[in-house]
């Protein structure tokens, strides 16, 4: 849950912390997975293959399954519930502006941003944040699910396959979304807790980039899956490591870099946006404090205009 402030470095390969984050996320996902309800009768498509128990599907969340960033909407919900004050936005906004405009990821700044965000939920109970996550889903997220991507996930479920969300968002929030959509479970960033209370630390690092691929790999091993028969879906070039793991990669609402990469490798593309909306849809799924800072700032600005 402490993932509200991440601004993580982009790495070309997995590190020990990436592996730790991935394995922790996979373990949390397996423990919390819900039984998939009996599939609804549907016309059998060529893909996914029905009855293939060694195949599964992995879906990125932000701008793939849901319009905008989960952290953006979660930040709005936490600010509404007085988890942090308006004055805390100043440093968040500055850090976000620096990373977006300068394109520089300074390790010291990233650690400072991460620590600031972790402090927001430090001392809060895991059960409290899970309950709030249910409310925030209804308030801000439910109406932003992409119908097209939801249909793709349902096709895998109808084929008897497990479907997992894979996201840098806190695993507790990811699990809420997965359950509401009828999916198997979720891989997300794992925050350390002791006796059900957040300590303000992460297990490994945020589930972003290479860490996502490590989480999928760990889950596939635990579940006995053949990654060559699995599918993965994402909008971001940051998820190329995850997409490259599976035999059926899909670029969904892709950013420019992913679109170029997908076309070069003849990956399948799906775009559920239209016109200018395709270029400007939602809040970019920035991994870090910026998504929350931007979301909260927008919420405050709207509040001030309306009052």
Topology:
Blueprint: H1 16-32, E1 56-60, H2 70-80, H3 89-102, H4 107-121, H5 126-141, H6 147-158, E2 162-170, H7 171-180, E3 185-189, E4 191-194, E5 197-202, H8 210-223, E6 231-234, H9 240-243, E7 248-252, H10 256-265, E8 268-270, H11 275-280, H12 289-306
Parallel strand pairs: 1-2, 1-6, 2-3, 6-7, 7-8
Antiparallel strand pairs: 4-5
Helix pairs in contact: 1-8, 2-5, 2-12, 3-12, 5-7
Structure report:
The chain has 307 residues and is α/β, with parallel strands linked by helices. 48% of the residues lie in helices and 13% in strands. It has helices at 16-32, 70-80, 89-102, 107-121, 126-141, 147-158, 171-180, 210-223, 240-243, 256-265, 275-280, 289-306; strands at 56-60, 162-170, 185-189, 191-194, 197-202, 231-234, 248-252, 268-270. The strands form 2 sheets. A 6-stranded parallel sheet has the order 3-2-1-6-7-8, sandwiched between helices. Strands 4-5 form a two-stranded antiparallel ribbon. Strand 2 (162-170), helix 7 (171-180) and strand 3 (185-189) form a beta-alpha-beta unit. Helix 5 packs across helix 7. It is globular.
Structural class: alpha/beta
- Gross morphology is globular
- Average pLDDT, all residues: 77
Estimated radius of gyration: 18 Å
Uncertain runs with pLDDT below 50, 5 residues or more?
Answer: 1-12, 34-45, 99-105, 276-307
Instruction: Estimate the helix proportion, in percent.
Output: 40-55%
Instruction: Output the helix-strand order.
Output: HEHHHHHEHEEEHEHEHEHH
Quick recap of the structure?
The chain is α/β, with parallel strands linked by helices and 307 residues long. The chain contains twelve helices and eight strands. The chain starts with 15 loop residues before the first helix and ends with a helix.
């Amino acid at each position: 849950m402490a993932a509200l402030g991440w601004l993580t470095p982009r790495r070309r390969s997995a590190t020990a912390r990436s592996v730790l984050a991935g394995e922790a996320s996979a373990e949390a996902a397996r423990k919390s997975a819900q039984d998939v309800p009996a599939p609804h009768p549907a016309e059998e498509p060529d893909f996914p293959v029905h009855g293939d128990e060694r195949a599964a599907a992995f879906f990125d969340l932000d701008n793939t399954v849901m319009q905008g960033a989960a952290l953006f909407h979660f930040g709005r919900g936490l600010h509404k519930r007085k988890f942090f004050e308006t004055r805390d936005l100043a440093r968040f906004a500055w850090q976000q502006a620096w990373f977006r405009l300068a394109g520089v990821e300074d390790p010291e700044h990233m650690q400072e941003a991460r620590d600031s965000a972790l402090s927001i939920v430090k001392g809060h109970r895991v059960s409290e944040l899970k309950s709030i996550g249910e409310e925030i889903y209804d308030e801000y997220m439910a109406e932003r699910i992409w119908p097209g991507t939801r249909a793709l996930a349902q096709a895998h479920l109808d084929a008897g396959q497990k479907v997992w969300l894979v996201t840098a968002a806190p695993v507790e929030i990811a699990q809420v979304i997965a359950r509401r959509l009828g999916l198997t479970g979720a891989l997300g960033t794992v925050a350390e807790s002791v006796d059900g209370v957040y300590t303000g630390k992460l297990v490994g690092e945020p589930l972003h980039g290479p860490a996502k691929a490590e989480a999928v790999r760990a889950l596939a091993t635990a579940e006995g899956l053949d990654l060559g028969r699995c599918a993965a879906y994402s909008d971001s070039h940051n998820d190329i490591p995850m997409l490259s793991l599976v035999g059926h990669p899909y670029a969904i609402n892709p950013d420019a870099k992913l679109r170029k990469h997908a076309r070069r490798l003849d990956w399948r593309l799906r775009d559920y946006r239209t016109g200018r909306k395709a270029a400007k849809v939602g809040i970019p799924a920035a991994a870090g404090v910026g998504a929350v800072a931007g979301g909260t700032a927008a919420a405050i600005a709207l509040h001030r205009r309306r009052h």
